Amino acid sequence: MAAKPRLTEEAARQLLVSAESSLDGLTPECLRAATDALNIFRGLGSEGLNGVHDALRVVVAFHRLKAAVEQRKPEEALLLASDELEHCRADGDRRGEASMLLALAEINMDRRGARKRAEALEAASAALVTFQEIRDQRLQARTYLILTNLYSKMQMPDEAENAAQSALCVFQALGDQMNQAKAFHGLALTMASRHRYADAAVHAEEARALFAQLGDVKMEAAELVSIGQWQLAAGKPGRAVASAEQALHLFREIGYGKGWQAKALSVLCQALAQCGRSAAAAKVAREQGGLFRDDGDLAGQVASQEIAAHAHLVSKHPERALRELQDAQQLIDGKGDPSQARLCRGEAASFLAGGDVAEAVRTLNRAVAIAKDVKDHVEESRAHRDLFDIHLDCGRFSAAGEAAARERAVAEAAEDRIGEAASCVRLAVALANGGDLVKSLALVEEALELSEAARDRRGKARALHVLSTIQRLDGNMDAALEASEQRLKLARDLGDLQLEAAAMQELAGLHRAEGNFSEARHLAMESRDLCRKSGDRHGLVNALVSLTELALAAETGDVKQSLLNPSKEAVAVAGKLGDGMLRARALYWRAHALGAVGRHPAARRIAHDAAELLTKLGDAEGRLRCLFLVAELYAAEGLKADALGVVQEVRLLAKSVRDTEAEYEVALLEEEVSRKESQPEPQATHATPQAATEKPPQAEARELPEVPVPKETSLDPQEVLKQLLQLVKEVTSSTDEIELDTQFVDAGMDSLSGVTLVTMMSREFGMSFPPSTVFDYPSVRALRDHLLREQQDEGLMLLPELNLSVLPRDRAMACNGTVQEPAVQRVRGSDLSTKLFIEKCAAAGRPVLLLDLVPAWPAYSQWRRPDGEPNFAKLAEDFQGVTGPVVDCGHGYGIQSWDVGDFFRWAARQGGDALYLKDWHLVNACRSLGLQVPYEAPGYLAAPVHDWLNLHMDKATGKDDYRFAYVGVAGTRTPLHHDVLFSHSWSANICGRKHWIFYPPEVSHKLLNSLGTAAESAQPQRRTSDWQQHFPGLQEAWEQRLEAFQEEGELMFVPSGWYHEVENLTVTISINHNWLNATNAQQVWQFLRSEWTSVREKIGDLQDTFDSEKDFLEQCQLLMRANCGLDISGWLELLTGAAEEAARLRADNPVGDELWVLEWVEERLRAVSESSLADAAATATQHSSKAAATLADALERLATWRKAAP
């Protein structure tokens, strides 16, 4: 009889589990199962009390979720939870009371306003205290999950993260994997709330893995949607495509709808659009729409058409977007669907993109009316906001104010303090633009009070931003600075790197206006670094532009560093974002920078590009500023007639937009130009042109250094277009016409054919391009514009067919700031014979970047995904079980041995630590696993006669001790060093980007302390506080540095004796060799000789402890081999191997260049061998004496072969 209650309880528990798992379906069966479980538990009396609490929470959750779906107040849930709370209190049932408090917290934390959310926090906190007191760990952890959500919504990121971590710890202790996954998702939410999207994606991936392990396909797919959203926000659209595709596939596989397929489709299409594949996005949306139609899913159909419309807008086809949205309206016509207002807003955006502002306004007014009818205050507010934006952009400030006021009325009626504060800020902006600063200031203060009352710190930060701007306009710089500093503090409190970077940019602008250039530059650089860290590419462009503005306004000697580099990077990044206004801004300041260094033709062309772009965007005032800059540039070059012609155009434009200040500036410029005499042969000047309608701070006149401008050979745009179209058709084997804006991917181009196109372009146009060019500029038109811009903007000379195809991109930085001749040359590796490499690169002893070699390697195609990111999944699968050394760059460069497969899986998550897989013996790993070595370097880098070191290691040990792979996340680095044994090295980037800093051999001694130890870095920001005491020559060495940025698909040659430090700027995989041969053998021998002497001196005091001098010298050899990897005996054996290889080649009777190379090698091999054999070290031990004799014999045989040669 005792077993019956337990069986009944077990049945109730099963019903409850079934109800919980089907909550999202909100079916009658779900509610019935929860209610039946509740009744069974109640029938068990005190034994079923805990079950009653749990069942009640599920019943309340059902009513709460049902009300949310039906967009109504959760009255049933509130009534049930409140009644049961009173009963539990009356009965002294503490667990029941806490459970109902938790249920009320869940009800009040979503869509109930700030006051109810505060009540929810109070209830959840009280529940947590009770669960802790009664030691109910499971409900403690559930409460932590709810607090995570609450803290995130209340902008309390630190508290949210702590709650999520607490939940995770408890669930791990309980072995509850399902809730562990939910805790990981909570952690991801805390990262996303700080705009740390890459970290969010990592935690979400941990949640996804657990869901997959549990076999919960629905939860796995939902988590993939979140991962895709965060990857998209982190600027990783390629990864987001993969995540969203997998999510959509899983949802289709299990037939799960509920809007989740549409969410996955939305992320997928946004990601495709950001990859430059808008046509593919629209196609995918249409195909999925057909599947929704077949399933009878009307909401899915509508969503798919909205998604397709967005793709068309991105691809600049507003008419197609409008058709999609109008078709969607037809689907729901007359059904009273609340999405009608949202569709109207989409139609308005299409009209606006097509230039029909009036129709956009009419359509938005219709959206307002529809939203009012269905009492959708969210869509009504959004429509008012869209109207505000349109009126503000058109300069209709009164109408913008009216839209903001109506939005505020909606927020007040809905008791939405956060929305009310935001609308107050918008109203203030409209009034300030209309000239009423007093009222606008009052409104901003009101917004601050509303945000404070709603505990909305982000809203407060927005209001402070506007307050700072208005105070600046009002001339109150102290108040502006104070507001901006408060905003920065709020951003830091929130842990939001993007907001912090934006606040720093604003503060930098204020300091610049005050003439405090040092502080402004410091803030702008910090902002730039934060943007890079957080993946905020829009913010990065703004930070780079800010640095350019500073360089123009302040005294600076480092022209390229301060002017040209930031402005060039800003244009490159902005060009990939699809934001026309941002790109125009970057182009405008790039033109300023080029004008400042006397490159007026390139500056004018870029300013014209900006003007044309702004014309398309309908920004007449922006176009005015750009054309004013063009006129200044003509004037600076002495082209009076051209300058006056543009001045007339600017005057008419200024009148049309009623910009009296611009008209005044134009009149001043015209007067100044008219006074000058025409100069038919203008000399480069270095005055910085000033933009119309802007008044940058006045800086004293200065002379900027002369910049050598190579003579240009212009390309004809039409001819380039024709050639590119032909090349693309050849590569894709297409018989169809290729449209100028067709994305290469949509034309059938994959990564391999993309590399082929780059190679063909290099040959066709005599210029060098990185392998990523076709991904960065993914259509014929974009590629044509880039090619012309590179040729003109950088002053690139069209290269002769020979002459090594040097591309002068990286230049030496002298301490006086002048830009000198190319420092690290970029040379097409395919143009090099062994003879040319010896003469121009190795013997010259300077770093060189070799292009177009790496893309042909199997590793380049197999180790990378189509989006260019590392294929860590394949690498993990291929190399599981092989070990390699992993360096922790964030904690003292400690080394641990990892399973390489595990490291690749860790790297795929990029889990925050700065771990670097270094000196991993790749060739040895491939041989041990039976894999093909995935690369083949050209003979001048790897043939045995040119790679004596690895030839020796293969023969002596059977190991490839100096052929490595390196894999590191962004921020990993190798400190200052020279390569092992004073060898040459080369490093080939399979993917990613590296920053190299080289120090010439003549300053090596300045990098060392009195003990001969090198500093960790010579970079000013990395030096220790006492560097002047220990490394007094460090600054002098720093001023003689060479810097270069190595892109994917490029190979860096590092000659002997060059100290260098390297940092990975992105996730990077490289293949590296250390090697030595005839070009550097004498240097290596001198290094080994000094090592031999050093070892003997260091342990000389111990010589008496050995039985004989021979034993002592043997110990010296052993220590030398341990210290530097090679002893004297090994060196002599290495030379023997080289002599034998040279003799083998002699037997092949080489002719021409091959004979020249071999004789060149033999001559230097004999010289270094004779020098080594003549040294006493060669016969110091029995082993070395034997090696010396063998070397002498090998040299004799080589001489015999040489004499016998015809």
TrEMBL record:
PANTHER family: 2-OXOGLUTARATE AND IRON-DEPENDENT OXYGENASE JMJD4 (PTHR12480:SF6), ARGININE DEMETHYLASE AND LYSYL-HYDROXYLASE JMJD (PTHR12480). GO terms for biological process: positive regulation of translational termination. This is Jmjd4 protein. Residues 680-694 have a biased composition (Low complexity). Residues 934-1092 form the JmjC domain. InterPro entries: ACP-like_sf, Cupin_8, JmjC_dom, JMJD6_ArgDemeth/LysHydrox, PKS_PP-bd, PP-bd_ACP, Ppantetheine_attach_site, TPR-like_helical_dom_sf. SMART domains: JmjC, PKS_PP, PKS_PP_betabranch, TPR. GO terms for cellular component: cytoplasm; nucleus. Coiled coil: none annotated. Residues 671-702 are annotated as: Disordered. Residues 715-791 form the Carrier domain. GO terms for molecular function: 2-oxoglutarate-dependent dioxygenase activity; phosphopantetheine binding; sequence-specific DNA binding. Keywords: Phosphopantetheine, Phosphoprotein.
